[in-house]
Backbone:
């Protein structure tokens, strides 16, 4: 009798995968997942390959995405014969001005260097993978002071009691999702994203279309399908190309037209505007830019506080006069 391996499973083992690892998959999704596992030579029982189904309750948006764990990635890479793991730890770009509830350690990006062998010369060269925090970290919104339930004008037919709706107390604020490992191990998670980028760059045939679970954490929060994630990534790249990624759209007193202002210049521009305009114009400017200023506060809380103090001082001077 031939030895049964993880790629030659008994019907009972196949059913066990369906009931446990792939319990969210329908029949077609499970068949696809199982074929990918066999083709890649990965073991679903040990977590080398995982199916993730987005929008499970929305048939039109429902999408299966195949996740390959770090162990699975290294198994595939090792079989290539021209792969060597990183010989130095990940490199982190830290900026203390980025420290905020959405980025507790101020990580701008992480870079991982893997080794690939040139088939012609047999020389080894580094393959770099870089992941930016703002592109992968799972950010969610929550009310500043929790939720409250407000009665509506409608009533329940059976009890005649008023229906209630959940409403936020205070402003909605952005925080780093604490349901996974991003809060506990932020450096490790962004490094895993960078390593997957390096694997795709050096070995595209083996890793094209595969994702690390750390890369999909953001998608879990915003519930994007895989195709939407690709679209989102392309939009992010276009914004980078035109300089829009690091800009905030503001409106100013001269005609009140919209302008994309580089984040690095926004504080100086705002302080100058507040200093030179009347309190009435400053108040109008503040009201018109309330959302952009909140975004600026989240990105640069120190500069945001300075702008807020200047604004409050301008209004207090008016009252004193």
Residues:
């Amino acid at each position: 009798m031939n030895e049964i391996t993880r790629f030659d499973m008994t019907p009972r083992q196949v059913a066990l995968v369906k009931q446990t690892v792939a319990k969210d998959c329908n029949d077609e999704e499970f068949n696809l997942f199982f074929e990918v596992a066999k083709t890649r030579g990965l073991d679903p029982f040990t977590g080398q390959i995982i199916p993730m189904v987005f929008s499970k309750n929305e048939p039109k948006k429902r999408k299966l995405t195949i996740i390959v764990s770090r162990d699975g990635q290294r198994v595939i890479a090792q079989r290539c014969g021209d792969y060597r793991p990183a010989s130095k730890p990940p490199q982190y770009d830290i900026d203390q001005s980025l420290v905020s509830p959405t980025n507790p350690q101020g990580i701008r990006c992480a870079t991982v260097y893997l080794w690939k062998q040139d088939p012609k010369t047999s020389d080894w060269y580094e393959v770099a993978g870089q992941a930016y925090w703002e592109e992968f970290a799972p950010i969610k919104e929550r009310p500043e002071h929790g939720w409250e339930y407000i009665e509506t004008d409608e009533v329940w037919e059976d009890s005649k009691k008023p229906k209630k709706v959940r409403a936020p107390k205070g402003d909605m604020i952005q925080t780093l999702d604490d349901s996974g490992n991003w809060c506990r191990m932020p450096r490790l998670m962004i490094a895993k994203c960078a390593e997957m980028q390096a694997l795709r760059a050096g070995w595209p045939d083996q890793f094209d279309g595969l994702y690390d679970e750390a890369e999909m954490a953001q998608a879990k929060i915003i519930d994007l399908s895989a195709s939407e994630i690709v679209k989102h990534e392309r939009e992010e790249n276009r914004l980078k190309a035109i300089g829009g990624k690091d800009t905030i759209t503001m409106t100013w007193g001269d005609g009140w037209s919209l302008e994309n202002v580089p984040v690095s210049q926004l504080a100086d521009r705002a302080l100058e505007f507040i200093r030179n305009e009347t309190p009435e114009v400053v108040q109008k400017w503040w009201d018109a830019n309330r959302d952009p200023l909140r975004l600026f506060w989240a990105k640069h809380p120190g500069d945001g506080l300075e702008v807020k103090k200047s604004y409050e001082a301008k209004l207090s001077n008016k009252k004193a006069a």
